[in-house]
Amino acid sequence: MSIFSQLFSANTKNAKVKILTRDTFNEAITSQKVHLIDVRTPNEFGAGHIKGAINLNFFDQPTFQKGIEKLNKNAAVYLYCQSGNRSKSASKFLVQMGFEHVFDLQGGYSNW
Known about the structure:
The chain is α/β, with parallel strands linked by helices. It has one domain: Rhodanese-like domain (Oxidized Rhodanese, domain 1, 3-Layer(aba) Sandwich). The protein is 37% helix and 16% strand. Strands 1-5-4-2-3 form a five-stranded parallel β-sheet. Helix 5 links the parallel strand 4 and strand 5 (102-105). The protein is globular and about 25 Å long. The relative contact order is 0.25.
């Protein structure tokens, strides 16, 4: 199954992805040790990002997938993009890969 068919399949387990408000997201990433992933492009990341985030560009699928495969599937993963669309797709991908604790920033970095 290709990455894109996994992302957009009808049986994606969306219930495992939690959409968090800015305040809840901020509280979680500052009070716990988590994987904080910015899925935007390197140019977007360079223009500003949340402190402590690593950049895994969702549009560069081979690099994105390699980076995700290095993460602990049992740890909490917090994702964001610019507006919430890419991180939503990235969240679905992580769930398909077996991640249990996936969190997405509502409204993305523009809401930060």
